[in-house]
Each structure stands twice: as structure tokens, then as C-alpha cells.
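User: My collaborator sent over this chain with a note saying "see what the structure looks like." That's all I know about it. Can you take a look?
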Amino acid sequence: MKDSIHQRHIRVAISYFAMAALLGVLLRFYPIFSFGFNYRYMVHAHSHIALLGWVYVALTTLIHYCFVEKGTSDKKYTRIFWFTQVSLVGMLLTFPFQGYALFSIFFSTLFLIMSYVFFHYFSRNSDPKFRHGNSLRCIKAALWYMVISSLGPWALGIIMGTLGAQSIWYRLAIYFYLHFQYNGWMLLALIGLFLFAMERRDMVIPKKSFMWFFWILNAGVVLTFFLSTLWIEPSPLLYVLAGIGAIAQGCGLVLLWAMAKNDIKVLPLSKLQALLMKTAVFLVFIKIALQLLTALPYFARIATMYLDLTIGYLHMTFLGMISIGLFFLVDYFGLFVISKKAYQWYFWGFLVTEILIFYKGFAAWVQWPIFNGYMEILALVSLSILCGLLLLMDLNRNRT
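Assistant: Without extra context I'll predict from the sequence alone. Here is the result:
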């Protein structure tokens, strides 16, 4: 019998994803209908609810479900979960109306504190039988990256009070946070959960081989932060370090795939689960290829000059690699059903919006015109993502 607590919490996470998608649709229609809201404030709400409501809640729920001994500390976990929801709902109700201001900063700070509480809770309560597993090592590293990433938001307050929001350090603090979120916390957590699925079937990567992968990948995670500094056209050394980081991250992930691909064949996957996993893996390697490309000075400048290329990359990472990876995991562990029809709505919306966003950035680069009706088509296609998520929620509404 499935754990109903974790099922409910995953449904909460998907609800945040749907809310973030709704905010995204409103942002897409903003240039068409000139809504009365503040566009920048709504972007803050959209991004916070997507990253912290959907991805954070889904990952921490999965981590608790897999690695914490059942029944040992459910009350503590439940309190942490609901205090976290207070912070998320607070952000949802404040960011659209005031941006970064007193109340939104209060709820953002509360969220950071609750993420530290979860980190401490997990460190004390992870099941001892997983202590020497490769999967738990990845999860612990992921949680450390989550904590490290939070230095960015803490630094923002100091920077705004001293150097101002126009300082390059303001943007660097944001990029520091984002980098260690998606390249560290989220990526390592997904890998750790995938390795847990393998270990549960008694498929274990030899320790020596795993450690090669682990340290190469972590070197890549740290060094690829310098990709986020190339917009300031720094010294050649940082380009070299960024390039080494991109190569190391790519080598680490290739090594993992080479070690795991034969065992994956014997995982009890449905056709849809296999498709979800292969799609997430494919997008990981697209991401790595783009990182390698932007380590070159010319392409680093292009990515900086044309914002749509950066937006397309971030959406590919969050809506593609991370979200589809999470779809695979919640379905595989039986916490949430991903239906083929709903996923098709989601995926085609994701794919077409990616093509359109990258097209706009590429067109600006090579000075092509943007075709008539571009904004209307992009807005309408964005509805497909929301429809897919609403279908998923409806399918799982009555599950127990």
C-alpha cells in the first residue's frame, strides 16, 4: 500500500507547478492584452513558485519517501512540510503585488530557514541501512549544494544595501543561486533518486567506479559556475576554468550513463516511464553541449547579448530535464500517475515553446525578422503546458 502522506505532498507540488504555469501563461499574454499587473513582480512569483513550490517540494518529498525510515519521525517531517507551505503561499500572495519588499522577503527568508531545518532533519533521520549506498552520497551532496546556493539570496540583501541593484555583484549573486540550484542541488538529487531505484533492485555500481564519477561530476558542478560569470568578459583564466568545468560535468555524466545503461534495461519500466527517462537523459546531454559551447568567448557573448537564448536554456533545464526527470521518478515510485495523454499535452507545449523562444534569440543574432503573430502563437502554445498539468491533477485527484 502506497504512502498517502507522500502522495498528498506530491499532489501539492504538482499544484504549485500548475500555478507557476498559469502565471507563465499570464506573462505570455501580457504583451497582447496589456494586463494591469506589474510584469517584473509576476516574473518573481512565477520563478519562485516553479523552483521552490514545484521542484523543491517534489524533491524533498521523494527524498523523504526513499531514504527516511518509515514511521520514525513523521510528525517532525509533517511540521517541516507545512511550515514550508506557509512560506510558499506567502510568496505567492506577496511577490505579484510588491516584488522584493518587506513581506515577500520575510516569506523568502522563512523558506530558506525551513530548507535548513529539512537539511538538519534529514541528516539526523536518514535510514542507517542506506549509509554506505552511492545514492545517499549523491543526496547528501545535493543537499549541501542546496545550502551553498542559499548564500546567493543572503548576499543580495547586503549588496542592495551597499552597492545597489545595478552592481554586477547583484546579478552574480542571483546566478550563483541559480547555478548551484540546478547544476548542484537538483541534478545531484535526481541522480541520487535514480541510483536509489537501481539499488532497490540490487543493481549497484562498484564503489571505485562510482567515486570516479562522483568527484569528476562535483568538480564540474563547482567549475561550471564560472560560465555564469562570462557575461562580464573576465580574464582568460575564468574561460579556461568554465571550459574545464563543462568538460568535467559532461565526462562525469557520460561515465554514469556508461556504468548504468546495462542495468537500466532490467528496471521494471512501463513504456511511458522509459520514454520519460530517455527524454530527461537526452535533455541532460543537450544541456551539457550548450554549456560547452558557451564556454567559448564568442558564444558566451552571444548568450549574453540575446536574452531569449538564456531564457530558452533555463526553460529547457527546468521544464525539460528537471521536470520530466521528476515525472519519471514520481510515476516510478507510485506516488503520482503520469498519464500518456496529459504528458503529450505538456511535452508538445514544452517543445514548441522552446523552439519559438530559441528561434527569437537566433533571429535576433542573425538579424532575421520575427514572423507576424509570434507572440500570439507563443502564448497559445503555452496553454498546452498548463492543460497537461491540469489533466495530471484531475487524474490523480481521487487517488488514496
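A starting point for your reply to your collaborator: The radius of gyration is 21 Å.
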